[in-house]
Amino acid sequence: MSAQYDQIGDKVANWDVLPVRSEYMEGYTLFKALGTVKGKSVLDVACGDGLYTRQFKERGATRVVGVDISEEMIRNARRQEEAQPLGLAYHVSDVADMPLLGAFDIVTAVYLLHYASSPEHMLRMCRNIHAQLKPGGSFVTYAFNPEFSAKGPNSTRYGITMLDFPEVPREGQTISAELHTKSPFTIHFSYWSRSTHEQALRAAGFHTLTWSRPECSPEGLTKYGHAFWRDYIDNPHAVALRCER
Ligand SMILES: C[S@@+](CC[C@H](N)C(=O)[O-])C[C@H]1O[C@@H](n2cnc3c(N)ncnc32)[C@H](O)[C@@H]1O
């Protein structure tokens, strides 16, 4: 499933323009869960073409490294680094197999854990992430919401729609989502419950797991209005999760 990003690399860049991906919703929620990155070292896993990797550096992080399984996504990230150098380093690797890259203050993963192919794969990812953190460091992830409901709103206006989402999803069930960019595309990933995530994270050594639902920034509320966001806030497709080492 993760190889799909080698095929859709350029379309993913378009995804960044959608309301749900904007700094008003996803970015706002992620950075709120993260706190300041100024003066901190950050490893951004499943970094894709480096959307957040670059932002961490621009917000004052010291050493910033990105890792992604897709050669195409890393090629795009490196192209942007060449065009506007920020001092970012990128590596191609499955997070479950990545080598030790250092001792970081923070590891981030925006849209990774639902690409685990099994609970064992998720555990290997979490162990590897844990190993890259300094004692007292934090792992902050933003990924598919295990509590997304087939009964809740699933509006196309945010830019992402779950396709045929089951009423009671099974562990490991394939979920598909359509992204309504200029050239729409469909992504596939696996359903893992909250407890599967928590078991893997705790077994890897993390404690104090804090889930947070997406929130809209004051600017996003002004720009789009409360009514626009209501359905998404009621049934968000993603959630943030912060874990301490
Ligand atoms: C939706 S993209 C998000 C990219 C980036 N975090 C962002 O928000 O722009 C998901 C990324 O996860 C990567 N990915 C999926 N499974 C992975 C794995 N096992 N190890 C590393 N990267 C993985 C994909 O190649 C893809 O680039």
TrEMBL record:
Q: Does the keyword Methyltransferase apply?
A: yes
Query: InterPro entries given for it?
Result: Methyltransf_25 (IPR041698), SAM-dependent_MTases_sf (IPR029063)
Decide whether keyword Translocase is in the record.
Answer: no
- Quote the Pfam families the UniProt record gives: Methyltransf_25
Q: Which CDD domains does the entry link to?
A: AdoMet_MTases
Q: Which GO terms describe its molecular function?
A: methyltransferase activity
Q: Which domain of life is it from?
A: Bacteria
Annotated protein name in UniProt: SAM-dependent methyltransferase
Q: Organism source for this protein?
A: Melittangium boletus DSM 14713
